[in-house]
Amino acid sequence: MTEASTPRPELQRLHALADRLRNGLRVALGPDARAALDALQRELALDFERQLHRLQANLDARAIGPADVPPAIRRRHVGVSGRFMMRIQPAIDVWQHAGSERFVGELRTVDPEVTGAPVITLESIRLMKRGYLEGTLYAMIGVLALTALMFRHVRDTLAALLPLSLGLCWTLGVMPLAGLSFDLANVWAVPLLIGTGAEYGVNLVTRFREARTAGVPALARSTVLAVLLNGLTTIAGFGSLLVAHHRGIFGLGLLLTIGAAASLVAALLVLPAVVNVAPPRPRQTDA
């Protein structure tokens, strides 16, 4: 035996310890235990042999092509035209609107038809903002048209819309104090506030018109209580959203509650004073 094939002293000691352990187990354990250990040893040897053969087979691996990929993965990454999908990871934070616009804009300079989650998210946000703005505009036009058609008088129409206008202005002023700002979760509250806020002024102005015709007090107690009850039930309905743990739902409920309360206060405190100060309309007499 040459010097190169001579085991190291550490290996000789390890072999000696293994022999001592094996001999000790054979003496200490019975025949059944020795048979179980021999069976375990054979299983370990067979498993090691199988793993070794698998490793040897992988060393002579062939190239993998698209045909070798499972169909589910191939359908996701290879189009019907045979073109491969390319995934591009952004280097900026696309969860911020400015970062998303920059990332999608740079992608579209390369391919105007690029798609993916950032593109879909950005376009969805744009469409939602456009829908909210158009919905608010349509709500204002609809309320103005219906109010004007109902009263057919400029002063009465403007008086009926005064609580709504003041309520929206006060709501916008209170929002920073309440830590609120418009986002995708609460911006659609504005059309709701337009619809609910216009109702208070319409009811009160209708009562004022009836009082002028009948010669009775301009603001009856029953009318005030009816409008107050209507407003409080609306506020209670919107306020029920404040118990939500979701911050978006909570912010929506807070914004709706503030807006409904502001319109109600403007209707009950400001509108009667304005109507009483305004000169009465001349009555139309039959010729």
Question: How would you concisely characterize the structure shown here?
Answer:
This protein has 9 helices and no strands. The chain is mainly α and 287 residues long. Among the domains are: 71-115, no CATH class; 133-277, Multidrug efflux transporter AcrB transmembrane domain (Multidrug efflux transporter AcrB transmembrane fold), CATH 1.20.1640.
Question: Tell me, what's the shape?
Answer: elongated
User: End-to-end distance, in Å?
Assistant: 140 Å
Mean pLDDT: 82
What Rg, in angstroms, do the CA atoms define? 40 Å
Order of SSEs: HHHHHHHHH
CATH superfamily of the domain at 133-277: Multidrug efflux transporter AcrB transmembrane domain
CATH topology of the domain at 133-277: the name is Multidrug efflux transporter AcrB transmembrane fold
Number of strands: 0
How many DSSP helices?
9
Question: Class of the domain at 133-277 in CATH?
Answer: Mainly Alpha
Label the structural class: mainly alpha
Question: DSSP strand (E) fraction?
Answer: under 5%
Q: What is the percent of helical residues?
A: over 70%
Segments where pLDDT lies below 50 for 5+ residues? Answer: none
CATH architecture identity of the domain at 133-277: Up-down Bundle
Largest sheet: none
